[in-house]
Write a structure and sequence with these properties.
Radius of gyration: 48 Å
Helix content: 55-70%
Distance between the termini: 116 Å
Largest sheet: 3 strands, antiparallel
Number of helices: 3
Strand order of the largest sheet: 1-2-3
């Protein structure tokens, strides 16, 4: 097997990077062609070879640039997919938070309604006790205590009950 074929197999799937001085390439290309009857076939061949070499270099550079652009494009596509996934997660989280907020607003409204009902009942009971001007004794069964309320005294007296 000839060397170029072996080399191609060894280098398949790899990137080839060539470094050349830019000024040297420009000097080769910017040689002034001979004009007139002094131009020989050899001069034309040299010029043709220089143009071919410049074209080959340009082609290699464009291939390298194209490979770099493909790589950058793949990275951007990967980043875009990650951002789309993150966006979907955030959208789901937002919907869950909105649902939780609605549930909390419902619970809050119910609690406010209960507080308002208890406030009315408390005010009614306080008005009743204040208007009767009679001492009242409240017995609590759970903590076995008695509470005496007298509207003129404005203080409560608590008594502990004993089981007899």
């Amino acid at each position: 097997m000839p060397w170029p074929k072996i080399r191609r197999k060894l280098l398949r799937g790899r990137v080839r990077i060539l470094f050349r001085d830019v000024e040297d390439e420009k000097k080769k290309i910017t040689k002034k062609p001979k004009i007139g009857a002094d131009v020989t076939d050899e001069d034309l061949r040299d010029q043709l070879e220089e143009v071919r070499e410049a074209l080959r270099i340009s082609h290699e550079e464009s291939q390298i640039a194209q490979e770099e652009l493909k790589s950058a494009n793949e990275e951007l596509q990967s980043t875009n997919e990650e951002l789309l996934s993150t966006n979907e997660e955030l959208t789901t989280f937002k919907e869950e938070m909105q649902s939780m907020n609605e549930a909390l607003q419902t619970v809050n409204a119910e609690l406010q309604s209960k507080v308002q009902d208890l406030t009315y009942e408390h005010n009614d009971l306080a008005n009743l006790l204040n208007s009767t001007e009679i001492a009242v004794t409240f017995f609590g069964l759970q903590n076995e205590s008695a509470k005496i309320y007298h509207p003129c005294d404005k203080s409560d007296l608590e008594l502990k009950l004993k089981n007899s």
